[in-house]
Amino acid sequence: MTPSDIVLVTGASGFVGRNLLPFLQRNEVSTRSLSIRDSDWKYNIPEDYLAIVHLAGKAHDTKNTSSPEEYFNINTTLTQELFDVFLQSNARDFVYFSSVKAVADTVDGILKEEVKPSPGTPYGQSKLQAEQYILSRELPPGKRVFIIRPCMIHGPGNKGNLNLLYKFVAKSIPYPLAAFKNKRSFLSIDNLCYAVKQILQDTNIAGGIYNLADDEALSTNEVVTTIAERLGKKPRLLKIPAGLLYLIARAGDILRLPLNTERLKKLTESYVVDNAKIKKALAIPSFPVKAGEGLMKTIGSFISE
User: Fold this and answer.
1) Average pLDDT for residues 106-131, to the nearest whole number?
2) Per-residue pLDDT for 62 more than 60?
3) Which of 13, 25, 100, 286 sits most deeply, having the most CB atoms within 10 A of its CB?
4) What's the 3-state SS for 231-276?
5) What distance in Å separates the CA atoms of residue 256 and residue 231, rounded to the nearest whole number?
6) Which residues are bridge partners to 215 per DSSP?
C-alpha cells in the first residue's frame, strides 16, 4: 500500500461510516478516517491520497430543534472547505454524500436526477448549497466528482424510523397509520457500500449527480407486515382516519410527542426514487441486495439487539 492508494472517509463514526469502512477494507480498498470536527482538521490530511468520501454532516432533525445555522455551518461551509482542499491535492476522486432532500421534500411521481431542486428545509437547502458550490468550481484534469443523493438508508445499527416501526410491532401495538397508501424507496447499507466500492475501483465510471436507492419501493404497510412476519407475529394494521391523525400530529408539534407532523409525513408519504442512472453507470441490471432482503437483515439486527 502506498499513500496514493488511501481513501479518506469523513463521518467514519456515523452509521454509514461504521459500515462502509470495514466493507471497503474487506474489498482491498485502503481507508483512513478523517475527522473534520476540530478546527485544525486540515493539518491531519496526508500529502498524498486517492480519494475523499465525504459522509460527515448534520442529519435531518425530525424534532425540529436544530437551528438553521447548524445545518449550513456543517453541511455547507465544511463541505466547501473540504472540496477546496481536494482541488488543491493530487487526489483523483471526491465522493460527496448529499441527499434526495436536497432536491425535494415531497415527490409527485418518481424522483429523477433531472428534477429542478427546490428543498423546503434548512437541511435540504444546506445540502443543495454544498452541491452548487462543488459544481461551480472548475475541475482540474484527471479528477472525478460524484454527488450521491441517497434516500432513506437502513441497516444494522440504524436507529431511524424503521427502528420506531419495529418497536411498535415488537410490542404488539397496532400500527395506526394503515389508512395511508404509499410507496417509499429505501436504501440498504449493503447496496450503498457496493456502489461506493465500484466507483472507487472503476475509473471508467463518469462523475456526476446520482440518486441512490434500492430497486424496489415498499409501502409502510408492507414494511410493518415484513417486521411482523420476521417476529413470527400477525401484522396488526389499524386504519385510523387520516384527518384525526393530522390533528394528533399537530398536537405533537406543540407537546413534543413522538408523533409530530414531520414524523407523520415521513411515515406516510410516498417518496419513490429512480436509480436507473447509477445502475447504468455501474453497468449492472440491478443492485446485489433486493429491498426486501435488506429490510429483513435490518430487522434481524433489531431482534439480536
Assistant:
1) 96
2) no
3) 100
4) CCCCCCECECCHHHHHHHHHHHHHHCCCCCHHHHHHHHCCEEECCH
5) 30
6) none
Cβ-in-10-Å burial (0-12, 13-18, 19+) of 204 comes to exposed
CA distance 94 to 92: 7
Measured CA to CA, the distance from residue 294 to residue 152 in angstroms comes to 12
Give pLDDT, residue 248: 93
Q: Helix (H, G, I), strand (E, B), or coil: what is residue 31? A: strand
pLDDT at 265: 83
Q: What is residue 52's predicted lDDT score, i.e. its pLDDT?
A: 98
- pLDDT averaged over the chain? 93
Separation of alpha carbons 173 and 165, rounded Å: 10
Instruction: Bin 210: left if φ > 0, else alpha if -120 < ψ < 50, else beta.
Output: beta
Annotated domain spans of the chain: 3-158+184-216+272-290
DSSP codes joined into one string, 48-81: --SEEEE---PPP-TT--S-HHHHIIIIIIHHHH
Residues 6+ apart with CB under 8 A from 15: 153, 155, 157, 158, 159, 189
- Return phi, psi of residue 269, to 5°: -75, 155
Cβ atoms within 10 Å of 53's Cβ, excluding its own: 29
Residue 43 to residue 36: CA distance in whole angstroms: 10
- Contact yes or no for 274/211 (Cβ under 8 A): yes
Percentage of the chain beyond pLDDT 90 is: 82
